[in-house]
Amino acid sequence: MSASGLAPVDLAQAARMAQEASVAGQALAPRGGNTRGWLGRPSRPDAVEISTQRLSGVLHYEPDDLTVTVQAGTGFRDLQRQLGAHGQWLPVNPPAAAGATIGGLLAANACGSLRGRFGAWRDLVLGMSVALSDGRVVKSGGRVVKNVTGYDVHKLHVGALGTLGLIGQASLKILPLPQERRIVLASFASTADAVRVACDIAGSRLEPAAVEILRGRADDPFGLRSGSMRAGAPGEWALAAAVEAGACLAVRFAGAEPCCARGVRDVRALVAASGGAHFAELLAADCDAAWAALDDLPVGAGAVLRIAATPGTAARLVSEEVAGTGGRMVADVVSGVVHLLWDEGVGPEDVVGRVERLRSGFGEAASCVLLKAPPQVRERVDVWGPRPVSYPLMLAVKRALDPGNVWNPGRFVGEI
Amino acid sequence: MSPPAADRVRRLVESLEGVLGKRWVFHRDEERLAYSYDASLARARPDVVCLPGSTAEVAAAVRAAVREGLPFVARGAGTGIAGGSVPVAGGLVIGLARLNRILEIDLADRYAVVEPGVVNLTLDQALGQQGYCYRPDPSSQKVCTLGGNVANNSGGPHCLAYGVTANHILGVEVVLPDGSVTELGARHVDPLGYDLTGVFVGSEGTMGIATKVVCRIARSAEGVRTMLASYARMEDAAASVSAIIAAGIVPAALEMMDGPIIRAVEEFIGAGYPVDAAAVLLIEVEGLSEGLDGAVRSIESLCKARGARQVRVAGSEAERQRLWAGRKGALGAVARLKPRYYLHDGVVPRTRLLSVLQAIADAAARHRLTIVNVFHAGDGNLHPLILFDPADADETHRVHVAGEEIMRACVASGGTLSGEHGIGLEKNDMMDWVYSPEDLEAMQRVRSAFDPEGLANPQKVFPARRGCAELRADGHGGRPAGEMWI
Amino acid sequence: MAYPDFTPARDCVSCGLCLPHCPTYRERPFEMASPRGRIQLIKGLATGELTGYEALDEHLSLCLACRACESACPSAVKFGSLIESARAVLNDRLAPSWGRRLGAFFMRHVFPHQRRLAAVAALMRAYQASGLQRLFRETPLRGCFPERIVELESMMPEMSPLGEMPAPRGELEPYGVERGRVGFLTGCVMQLAMASTNAASMDVLRFNGLRVVLPREQRCCGALHLHNGFIPEARALARANIAAFEEAGVDWIVTNQAGCGSTLKEYGKLLDDEPDWAGRAEAFRGRVRDINELLVELGLRPPSGRLALRAVYDDPCHLVHGQKIKAQPRQLLRAIPGLELAEAREADWCCGSAGIYNVTHTEMSLAILQRKMDDLLSTRPDVIVTSNPGCAFQLRYGARRAGHAVQVVHVMDLLARSYRGEGAGLDRSATKGEPS
After folding, report:
1. Which structural domains are found in chain B, ordered by start?
2. Angle between helices C291-298 and C195-207 (to 10 degrees)
3. Which of A2, A160, A303, C218 is found 20 to 30 A from A238 (Cα to Cα)?
4. Residues of A in Cβ contact (< 8 Å) with B427
5. CB–CB of C52 and B34 under 8 A?
């Protein structure tokens, strides 16, 4: 990859750069906070980086509209801070958000476990402006919360890893900050018990913000104790202790105080009724620390397989896979997204074998994406997995929007 | 029709009859006329109509049409108010009413698979028996189909808290304009590759025909409270909407009705609204029982602080139903006030509600028209109704001028042309108010990835050259486009 | 404006809210079989845009005219009068066929004449009472006839005994203190096939302190004619009935037949272009009441005879949609001690009888009847109650087809039973003009 990347000052300039690249047959690789270099297939070696670092800042923010328009290079945490000053937030909790930009998270479709309650990026994006490789800057959608004017082309760019164009700015739906946040931690001797309780909660009317099952290694529960992740605030210690004790259930609530209290109460009763050990109820600063730690768990390993399935399928997987391998796991049973984490101890052969076995087992019932993997694994298995049935259409969309194949070629599904 | 065209139609009829049987293929005059409309004013007859009974038959019908170079238009219940299902370029109408089965409901996996002709409310009721629901609730939900909802990315009063159709569709089986069948999305979140489902939803039938829809289903809320706040001044009602949102409360629904609507509703429906009010807000909060009282109290004090004369909380399910009956029947009631009305669907940022309402009032005064309002205030989704008598040509002209001014005011405030009704034939010529030619061209390119020949519902969504088709005002006294659902 | 009147078509905004309420659209989900589609076709007929009369008739005749769409319509389109107008126009324009000639013969020469109709009924009664029907139904003889004949035969309602067929005339005294004078429409079919229900109805009126007047010159109400587009015949019958009941000097004109009531209430519109009659028709219309409606309006005298029955009420279309009478019959039934009233899911859906529709469109009628019986029988009733003879015949046929022993009766049958249990001590010989 070229060392001297491009850093356009505005989107029009980015579009001109892309057009020039198109004429020259040059590939461009969009770059935000560079927090997710591990995602997808490798960039083409000759691709020139084009950074959004100078496309930064909030363009339009009227708190009472509950929408915000930002430039792509805006830091995720910077934006949350600005919104927080007005008692608002963007209700997503991507892992490894430190240093990440809005544009990068959108392109990577990096959501967290709050998506079941508050929606994923595709649900929160109201409109976008994008630089195309023909030199044009085009927009779709707008900054109002309901809009059926024209196609939602912006949805195509979410999760496209910059292969259709450079996201320059986006309008997003935001929410008032919840009055209260709580986490309940419980642990179970058997994963099956934890799954059962988790499914009961996910299928209840309690409206939890997230329901996750964590399965760590006894000697190092997600690095929470070893200090590899954080200094070890009391909330993290509680989380570590819960994970050490067996299959851990973490239920998060966010909302009005009486609703959180009711949620905690009901979860405690469900746990007790199913023989689980109730570990902790975290509030205030403890909750914040554990909340942030929980957000980061899914990508905390050298090899991570992300499985998106239906909630029921995900629940079955959690029971069976954990029993089978004893690997680490973070499972969001509301949305059906399971992260399997493998450390260096699991050799490349083993990772490849497990990925292939899971993919063939699921067929089309889940998508299994290797988020992170060492090179030895990447050489032997496609990180994205088999092409979906609608692949020809995806290819047609790519050709329609980026006929010169300028944008991040080869990095996406099916080598798009 | 020129002889070669007549030949093409004849061959189309023959091949359709071969696949579907004569019973489900229509091409006589009166049958074509019966498929020349939807709930808008647009009218244009198809050459042929067919009602396939399976995905394979839909695909065969599409192939038969494109083989003859004829366009095809999918049709659900024909309740659209932007002309989206009116076959403005002739060709084949593919009615999906026979594809009306709920194929699968999986509570543990929280999805349902339905055929496109399933009526929105039918799915919701089927789920309701088991404590679940399908969230999007367009006002036409008793009639409109999920296929139509997918095409239009339909909204509804409760979209304030739960989002629109696009947020609740996981995947679709689609017959593409080349007659092949593919699947977009999946039954789970985050399918691999581009979010084709996301762009297909709301594409108004211009990318193909959905033959199966995977809907996300939700647990219905534990409790609900519905209240009615009444005001002596419209401004106070609008200020209350902003105050509620600003206070961090997101109600399930937040609807506004103005004085003339209130009185019409009371006269024809009797929902218990105060007839001397200048505006009412119908506010609903849902969720855990523990949170409802607090939310109701907050909303009540916010409304009162902004001048609400009275805030009444429905004391029973019957009273709640009555309050909603007024809102849902508002359009019918207005229909009886004046011979006709013209309805717009503009959306504005929520902080601009008051100023755009003022612009609407100014337009009414300037053009000597009565304009009434009943709309999704919480979303900023306006529905001004301009009342008029079509017998008065001058007034009818002023209605169009005022309508255009209102839409311009919406766009100028940072809003857009349509929040839930669609562009169709009604607003496609306004598209360049909000999009540049480059924006539109990019959208066209995406469309061409699905439909290179441009035979799927042509002349919709994008600015079109009018006059080449049979599109005309309904000479027998129909109302202008866009008037029923809000 | 009198018939044909196509102005209501202007009120239709083609919103489609009627679609889910239309029984024929549910069976055949295409626009031509929906109220909205029919209105568009009727507009086409009215403007001359459509001239394929046979094809139009084919589609429009599929309509039951149940008017469920009127109840659903937010714009209050008067669909009933639209379909009647269209049929009237089509009757004029269609080439006569064998079937149409036969229909017209009955409309013009049989129904308006009580005696001729009675003669037909007597033939039917003779066939039923003589054992011929049993012979036909139970022996292999059936197999020798075309299927269609067998089908039609099986739908034939059971006629009243010959002795009860002649319509009563004269005046019947109220039981107890008189509260008013009602003119009672004996109807044509009702008297011939449900004479005992007419007797029960008159009894109920009398138990409620009403003097029952039976004008000699009353005729068929003209409902069948109006619904099938025989407008001049309907007008003639209207004039005759108005004159007959004026002469009787009554406070109300009462009928126990939903279809007749609906038509009697439309006399005002039917004759509004006849200067000599418009005012009289309007005055007449103002006095017309369905029997359920009148009893609730006056305040029912509570019956005390106990009927330990589980009943389910099925709304006749011309009561619930045509006259918006839905609560009253239920209210009356709930007044009967011991009676438990079940509610069917689709009580206000058509049963498929619709005048002569079951004869002209048997296949569709049976499909609709099947749904109706499934719905009603799912409430496990001892008795199905309705308030219109056509519906009663259809539901009885439905019960026979389903092999179910459930009884089908009129609201007044049950009320009368309850009163009679209570009123055993009353001197019924105090009445004059008993049926002769």
Report:
1. 223-332 (3.30.70.2190)
2. 10
3. A303
4. 149
5. no
Check if B153 contacts A (Cβ < 8 Å). Answer: yes
Residue B35: the pLDDT is: 98
Query: Using CA of residue B241, residue B235, residue A59, residue A85, what is the dihedral sign?
Result: negative
Which chains have at least 3 CB atom pairs separated by less than 8 Å from chain C? Answer: B
C428 found inside a domain: no
Question: pLDDT confidence of B212, banded at 50, 70, 90?
Answer: very high
A323 pLDDT more than 60: no
Q: How many domains does chain C have?
A: 4
C169-206 per-position pLDDT tens digit:
899 999 999 999 999 999 988 888 999 999 999 999 99
Asked whether residue B406 carries a pLDDT value surpassing 90, the answer given is yes
C404/C425 Cα distance (integer angstroms):
36
Domains of chain A, first to last: 50-176 (3.30.465.10), 180-378 (3.30.70.3450)
- Say yes or no: C214 and C232 in one domain: yes
Residues C271 and C212 in one domain: yes
CA distance A67 to A74: 15
Is pLDDT at C12 greater than 50 in this prediction?
A: yes
* Paired tokens of B81: 């108010």
Of the candidates B332, B334, B313, the one whose C-alpha atom is nearest the C-alpha of residue B259 is: B334
Residue that terminates a domain, selected from C277, C297, C317: C297
Nearest Cα of chain B lies from the Cα of C9 at a distance, in angstroms, of: 8
For residue B423, give the nearest of B46, B61, B88, B48 by alpha carbon.
B88
| Position C2 pLDDT exceeds 70 | no
Q: For the residues A159-180, what does the mean pLDDT come to? A: 97
CA distance linking residue C4 with residue C25, whole number of Å: 25
Contact B33 C56 (CB under 8 A): no
The shortest CB-CB distance from B291 to any of A143, A256, A414 is to A256
pLDDT band at residue B80 using 50, 70 and 90 as cut-offs? very high
Indicate yes or no: CB of C75 within 8 angstroms of CB of B335: yes
How far apart, in whole angstroms, are the C-alpha atoms of residue A106 and residue A123? 11
Asked whether the beta carbons of residue B184 and residue A385 sit closer than 8 angstroms, the reply is no
Question: Does the structure's ipTM exceed the value 0.90?
Answer: yes
Site of tokens 């029923």: B484
DSSP per residue, C221-271: -SHHHHHTT-HHHHHHHHHHHHHHHHHHT-SEEEES-HHHHHHHTTHHHHT
CB within 8 Å of A104: residues ≥ 6 apart: A31, A32, A33, A34, A35, A36, A52, A72, A110
Q: Which of B121, B476, B483 to mutate to test the interface with C (most CBs of C within 10 A)?
A: B476
Integer Cα distance of B276 and C346 in angstroms:
38
Of C252, C268, C297, the position where a domain reaches its end is C297
Residue C339's CATH number: 3.40.50.11810
